[in-house]
Amino acid sequence: MYYVIDRRRNPQGRSLGNRQRFIRRAREQIREAIKEKLRDRSIGDIDSGEDVVISADGIHEPHFTRDPQAGHQERVLPGNTDYIEGDRIPKPQGGAGSGSKASPDGDGEDRFAFALTREEFLDLFFEDLELPDLVKRKFKAEKSLRSQRAGFSTTGAPNRLSLLRTMRRSLTRRVALGRPSEDQVAELRAMLEAFKNGEIEPSDGRPIAAHVAELEEALERAGRKRARIAFIDPIDLRYRRYEQMPHPVAQAVMFCLMDVSASMDEAMKDLAKRFFMLLHLFLQRRYEHVEVVFIRHTHHAQEVDEETFFYSRETGGTVVSSALEETLRVVNARYPTHDWNIYVAQASDGDDIPSDVPRCLDLLTQKVLPISQYMAYVEIGRQGPPLGLGAESDLWGGYRSLTDEHRNFAMRTVREPRDIYPVFRGLFSKDRVET
Amino acid sequence: MNVHVASPLLYEGADWDFDKLQRAYDAIERIGIDELGLDLYRNQIEVITAEQMLDAYAGIGMPVMYKHWSVGKRFAQNEMLYRKGLRGLALEMVINSNPSICYVMEENTMTMQATVLAHAAIGHNHFFKCNDTFRTRTDADAILDYMAFARGFVSQCEERHGVRAVERILDAAHALGDQGVNRAGRGRPRIAQERDRAARRMQEERSAYNDLWRTVPSTRAALPGDLDEQAARAALGLPEENLLYFLEKHAPRLKAWERELLRIVRNVSTYFEPQRQTKLMNEGCACWCHYTIMNRLHERGQINDAAMLEFLHLHSSVIFQPDFSDRRYSGINPYALGFAMMRDIERICIEPTDEDRDWFPHMAGNGNPVETLRRAWADFRDESFVRQYLSPQVIRDFHLFKLDDDGEQPEYTVDAIHNARGYKRIRKALAASYDVAADLPRIEIVDVDMHGDRRLVLQHVVRKGRVLDALETRRVLRHIATLWGHSIVLREVDYETGRAFAEHGASSGN
Questions:
Q1: B190 and B253 share a domain?
Q2: What is the pLDDT at residue A387?
Q3: Cβ contact B77–A4 (<8 Å)
Q4: What distance in Å separates the CA atoms of residue B221 and residue B508, rounded to the nearest whole number?
Q5: Highest mean pLDDT (candidates A425-434, B176-185, B354-363)
Q6: Bond prior to B369 in cis (omega within 30° of 0)
Q7: Do residue B147 and residue B273 come from a single domain?
Q8: Cα gap B344→B330, rounded to integer Å
Q9: Rounded-to-integer distance, Cα B169 and Cα B258, Å
Q10: 3-state class of A104 per DSSP?
Q11: Residue B224, domain member (yes or no)
Q12: Which residue has the higher pLDDT, B263 or A71?
């Protein structure tokens, strides 16, 4: 006797719950490993899944085991070729036995390797990051509708059937209409059998046949009634109802300003692009309603699309204020300040024609910062050690004066690829210390 | 004589479908039951995908398993190894339940499916049903229901008390899984009743709950000052080697649901104990069955030469035993040794040598190999099976040798090789290595400080200087302290001299 069952169509991902528990458990180690990884991979790869190797400390499952090195043990092994009884074999040096050497403070060095999916990776990657001061909320059309439970209805899709409600109504109706239950029928039947077999004597002195007839009729009546009154009637059915409710949405726009002038060498442009890629990825992933405007500038600025921003080459002189002016133009044209949360991220090597710096500061304090929720300035330094004390760039010197007065302005320096992620986290972490 | 259709072949080619599967199963089962006289649970054969097989791996081979991060961990690890091609997946997996559930992978070729059916649905199935260790210690009828209950109970607890609180208890209990089995045996567990018992207890607790009682100061039973220590210890059932059982019953601070979790882990541990004790025999029996059955099918012309060659290739890779010096060596392959021993018994029954007549007078030349094998499968477990049946022939075939390793010495000593002087010593040592009870460190609870700080005293009985791994021990003790709620000390004491080795301790973190 046997059955064959085809389970291949069963729902996938049965172990998802276990997976989530595991990731949560190993969160700290995984984040550590991701940080480690970022040092030597390009940002473009972040967008795919990832193999990580984490320390096995937090996920180790201890058991009582014996010390593999201590005491007297006997082993039986297969495949003897030349040994005879009494031979002595020197023990292998160093890594004898299989036990991992562990440090005395209780933490072993075992490593554990597994693959993270893209989703898991990015979730951990951008954990605890957010856009600050996302305050202007507005009822917006179409996209901002959300399903919300709205009681029960008598019609609906089968997957929305509320079993509890339906069965409760069915029970009430059956009780009210007096539908004989399974047990009652069984009881009648048992009694009938008992009478027929003469197991019980009628106590009222009437003949058995009368009782039998009575019971048979009762049974038949019960059967008819059960057939007439359905166990579940269409009027019992209740479905969970959902309604689309409008939901206020915070609209935000991020302006990415990048300096592509000749003073930025290829390595520096690469750093800047990496920073913006990270920013772009972060916004895409975490905010459904954030728009991104890409502006690049040399001695003049222009709004470009994503493709051009990241992949095309251009050089020229440097007028930083042109980018700020372009930003203001776009804001005026498309993003009314009472509806939009405005964010600005600027990356530059800090070179500017000296006469332009005061104009930049003027634009920032008068126009840009007052309408922005937050502005981050990232200065791309040359690789290697700083040129020397006092060798700060034109912009850095000018911008530094802004940090005291404007709490929504922050600035950082990036010199090497490995700086990008910490700087990024520093600029957008939830508990950002205002400088 | 049965009517033979034009072609007696059960199938041709690599692809399988449900018709072929059915024909093959019928033929295989007929050989198993009619010719080999095997006794089987009803089979439930489930076709699954690779991902589902990974799932089954992770869930310690249970079709239903409660949720725990360690399952996710195993899944992640296996998946990684599988994706990178470092590890293949088993072709099948079989559950000791009634009906016997046998998973087969959809990627298998038809010959693989036939082999798998003969191996698992016949071989393992018979072993589960007839082996004494399984019959007395597991309850195949109820295990699936019980696991479903356990899964429900754990998720209920998670909802009520939080995932972390449940994890804390399960982690600690898992660390003691090996110490949660009654190896001495207390009769067959009635798992079917477990669920009702647990449900009833929860129900009683709910119905008896009255918020008023919380406000009544609890009267503590006064401890009689001169209570006899001995009696107190006896009341706790000390010494006790089932640590999980003791903690479930006596840990002072655990709540009812926490005790129930310990009980679940203990029941799961107990369920798997026979599989640990009979790995070698179980695989040996299954390999012998698939080998014999596939050969019979070929003899009868029910499978063609191509299928037979494919089978032999598969079979020989399953029973491959690398030498100790080989890079691939990772212990003795239970499939290899098990199969070799079963074939050897068959040989001894049919054409014994003089040596065999000396060693196995009770079965040599009895001409009834199947009957002899069936009896061995029913009455033995690995340790006693090796002690009873390992023949000089198999020792020679495997070139087995025995190595003594004294922790102090810089060298190993070869104590015995495959010659007349060595057979018995090798057999004895190999049998001992399959003795689960001796292989695990023996740890008992010996004392509880009832009047003082409630410290729990454990003792490890050390044989031949084999002390515990200090680091691992400290980690496990931390888990025990979580459950016990007070401090713990574990003393290592020599079995013969009573000399004390190390002492490990842990205090409850609260």
A1: yes
A2: 53
A3: no
A4: 24
A5: B354-363
A6: no
A7: yes
A8: 24
A9: 7
A10: coil
A11: no
A12: B263
**Amino acid, single-letter form, for residue B477:** L
- In the structure encoding, which two tokens stand for residue A63, read together? 């058991």
Neighbours of B14 (CB within 10 A): 13
ipTM for the predicted complex:
0.81
B135-162 burial, b if ≥16 CB within 10 A, otherwise e?
eebbbbebbbbbbebbbebbeebbeeee
Q: Considering only residues B262 and A143, tell me which one the structure prediction assigns the higher pLDDT.
A: B262
Residue with tokens 């160093």: A94
Residues A279/A420, Cβ–Cβ less than 8 Å: no
CA A64, CA B179: separation in Å to the nearest integer? 9
Residue B401's domain spans which residues?
322-437
Mean pLDDT of chain A: 80
Look at residue B90 and tell me if it is in a domain.
yes
**What is the Cα–Cα distance from A342 to A374, expressed in whole angstroms?**
7
CATH fold of A251-428 reads Rossmann fold (3.40.50)
Apex CA B146: angle with CA B142 and CA B149, to 5°?
150
End of a domain among B260, B292, B312?
Answer: B312
Q: Which residues of A touch B165 (CB under 8 A)?
A: none
Do B273 and B284 lie in one domain? The reply is no
Q: Identify whether residues B120 and B42 lie together within a single domain.
A: yes
Q: Are residues B240 and B153 in the same domain?
A: yes
Domains of chain A, residue spans: 16-59+110-125, 158-241, 251-428
pLDDT band with cut points at 50, 70 and 90 for residue A197: confident
Rounded Cα gap, residues B363 and B344, in angstroms: 12
Cα distance between residue B493 and residue B506, in whole Å: 18
As to burial, measured by CB atoms within 10 angstroms (0-12 exposed, 13-18 middle, 19+ buried), residue B226 is: exposed
Contact criterion met (CB < 8 Å) for A83 and B407: no
Which token pair is B218? 């609890």
pTM recorded for the entire structure: 0.75
Inside any domain, residue B185: yes
Q: What is the DSSP string of A327-387?
A: HHHHHHHH--TTT-EEEEEEEE-S---TTHHHHHHHHIIIIIHHH-SEEEEEEEPPSSS-S
Which amino acid is residue B309, in one-letter code? L
Question: Which of B407, B437, B467 finishes a domain?
Answer: B437
Are the C-beta atoms of residues A114 and B439 closer than 8 Å to each other?
A: no
Q: How far is A174 from chain B (nearest CA, A)?
A: 28
How far the first Cα of chain B sits from its last, in Å, is 78
Question: Which two tokens mark B502?
Answer: 């190390």
Tokens 């050497």 appear where? A101
Same domain, B341 and B291: no
Residues B333 and B416 in one domain: yes
Residue A30 and residue A26: Cα distance in Å, rounded?
6
Cβ atoms < 10 Å from Cβ of A335: 19
Mutate to test the interface with B, among A75, A120, A121 (most CBs of B within 10 A): A75
Do B467 and B498 belong to one domain? yes
Q: Which residue stretches of B188-255 are H helix?
A: 191-208, 211-215, 229-235, 243-250
Averaged pLDDT, B234-249: 84
Spell out which residues of chain A touch residue B71, defining contact as CB-CB under 8 Å: 15, 18, 22
- Residue B55 CA to residue B61 CA, distance in Å, equals 9
Omega of the bond leading into A90 within 30 degrees of 0 (cis): no
Could you say which of B46, B79, B472 has the minimum Cβ distance to residue A115? B79
Inter-chain Cβ pairs, chain A and chain B, closer than 8 A: 251
Distance from CA of A4 to the nearest CA of B (A): 5
Q: What is the residue type of A253?
A: V
On whether residue B216 sits in a domain, the answer given is no
Pairing of the two strands B43-48 and A2-6: parallel
Query: What are A417-420's contacts with CB under 8 Å, separation 24+?
Result: A417/A39, A417/A271, A417/A274, A418/A38, A418/A39, A420/A38, A420/A43, A420/A271, A420/A274, A420/A275, A420/A278
Closest-CA distance of chain B to residue A82, Å: 10
